[in-house]
Design a protein that fits this description.
The protein is an alpha+beta fold. The chain contains six helices and four strands.
Length: 156
């Protein structure tokens, strides 16, 4: 040590105090402190809410559109459509808001290029959905749309 009795006594006392403090904290955390048990109801509700946001992100509602369809006869045909875009994550709705006009233009271009007879079939609706999904996802660096859901689909 230093050779001076007072300084040696102070250093030994400080080391002893630090050692006792460390041992006291260890003893307290291991034997005396009890962690509060989690409330199962709160944890279950938190887990359900978290799962809902991951599994069922909020869908993005597109404006209702009435689109002219090409026909071979002189009779005019229209498609009255209301669609929802189902994203992979909830954060995608902000990206949809920024390019809403582009998305509507894509829907109009794709639907107006299809015949009414084609849109009247299930395969035509699936084809419309896949084309919409492909072209809208092409607007963004990574795919954002999981599926397209139609709530109104009337051909007149």
């Amino acid at each position: 040590m230093t050779g001076k009795k007072l300084i040696d006594t102070i250093l030994i006392s400080l080391m002893l105090l630090a050692t006792l403090a460390t041992a006291g904290v260890f003893f307290y955390t291991q034997y005396l402190y009890e962690k509060p048990l989690p409330n199962p109801e709160e944890e279950r509700l938190k887990m359900v809410e978290e799962a809902k946001t991951k599994l069922f992100p909020n869908s993005y509602k597109l404006d209702k559109l009435i689109i002219n369809l090409p026909t071979r006869s002189s009779r005019l045909r229209f498609l009255d459509v209301q669609a929802y875009l189902v994203p992979f994550s909830s954060e995608a709705t902000e990206a949809f808001d920024k390019k809403k006009a582009h998305i509507q233009d894509i829907v109009i271009n794709i639907a107006s290029a299809m015949e009414p007879e084609e849109l009247g079939t299930i395969s035509g609706k699936i084809l419309l959905e896949s084309r919409m999904k492909k072209q809208i996802n092409a607007l963004y660096p990574k795919p954002l749309i999981k599926s397209v859901q139609f709530t109104d689909f009337v051909i007149q």
